[in-house]
């Protein structure tokens, strides 16, 4: 697979590369990814995190990555990304930029904050956060997504929200949603039925496969599919890889994260798969996924890693903010 090859994201006019870069882990000092103490060290000041984010963005751009994903709740990630785009002289439209609304970052740049983000999927929140996002990203914004939509939240039936999203699409910004939890498939089905959305961003990995059929249907319906958490917040990397994954990686001369990402890249419905790297070394390791040959034997060999979705999401919820 050509890591630099551009392709359309579903029915949108947006062009993406097979691997994109998600900024959840580099826009704020604390996050739930395993190994952050080793990866980031003690200096998590704003300047240090900005330098890290810019170095990562430089490396991704040089490698040909052309989709970048952020959110209002990712601390200063939107600001870091906006500053980098302008400093490097990257023209609007040269990369596809996606952001999300619905969570607010409330961690105060503290590691020991009681809460790091608060969710509110209301029309008022949409208006406030869209204004904040546009103040930073302006004409770079290509895609705006509801952050962690669920059927139970009611956001998919909120007329005020839907009217504003329709208006935003008329302004040539694609509309999407991200999903979360053991009932992702139900949310995806509701999004397809609504006809409102251009893209869906969901968790799929070797542990959590429960929404695969729903994502295939979304792809068939013309939605662009973005896959997040492909290495399960570090559980599918060398730090914690199950024996079967580690062995498969050794046989191919790559790291476990590369095999985990290759599993997603092999799905015909996957439009773009996000790397959540926090260092250039991790990014380089992730990028080798495009050279991993995926076949039926490997797929069957690793099928046993799948967990019950309730178990997977309970495990994820227990990860500490580090």
UniProtKB/TrEMBL annotation:
Domain NADP-dependent oxidoreductase: residue ranges: 50-297
Protein known as: Aldo/keto reductase
InterPro entries per record: AKR2_Oxidoreductase, NAD(P)_OxRdtase_dom_sf, NADP_OxRdtase_dom
SUPFAM superfamilies, per the entry: NAD(P)-linked oxidoreductase
One Pfam family it belongs to: Aldo_ket_red
Organism: Microtetraspora glauca
């Amino acid at each position: 697979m050509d890591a630099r090859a551009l392709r359309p994201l579903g029915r949108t006019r947006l062009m993406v590369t097979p691997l994109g870069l998600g900024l959840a882990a580099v826009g704020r000092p604390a996050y739930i990814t395993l190994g952050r103490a080793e990866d980031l060290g003690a200096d998590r000041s704003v300047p240090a995190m900005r330098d890290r984010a810019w170095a990562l963005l430089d490396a991704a751009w040089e490698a040909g990555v052309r989709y970048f994903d952020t959110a209002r709740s990712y601390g200063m990630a939107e600001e870091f990304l906006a500053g980098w785009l302008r400093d490097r002289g990257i023209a609007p439209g040269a990369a596809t930029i996606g952001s999300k609304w619905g969570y607010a970052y409330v961690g105060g740049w503290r590691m020991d904050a009681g809460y790091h983000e608060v969710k509110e999927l209301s029309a008022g929140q949409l208006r406030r956060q869209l204004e904040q996002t546009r103040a930073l990203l302006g004409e770079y914004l290509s895609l705006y997504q509801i952050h962690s939509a669920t059927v139970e939240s009611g956001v998919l039936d909120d007329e005020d929200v839907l009217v504003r999203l329709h208006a935003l699409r008329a302004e040539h910004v694609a509309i999407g949603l991200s999903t979360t939890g053991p009932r992702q498939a139900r949310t995806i089905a509701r999004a397809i039925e609504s006809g409102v959305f251009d893209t869906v961003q969901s968790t799929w990995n070797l542990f959590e496969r429960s929404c695969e059929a729903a994502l295939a249907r979304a792809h068939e319906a013309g939605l662009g599919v973005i896959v997040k958490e492909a290495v399960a917040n570090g559980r599918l990397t060398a730090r914690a890889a199950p024996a079967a994954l580690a062995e498969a990686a050794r046989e191919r001369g790559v790291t476990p994260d590369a095999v985990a990402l290759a599993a997603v890249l092999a799905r015909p419905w996957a439009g773009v798969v996000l790397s959540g790297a926090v260092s250039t070394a991790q990014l380089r390791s992730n990028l080798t996924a495009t050279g991993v040959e995926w076949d039926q034997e490997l797929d069957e060999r690793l099928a046993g890693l799948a967990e019950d979705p309730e178990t997977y999401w309970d495990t994820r919820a227990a990860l500490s903010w580090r």
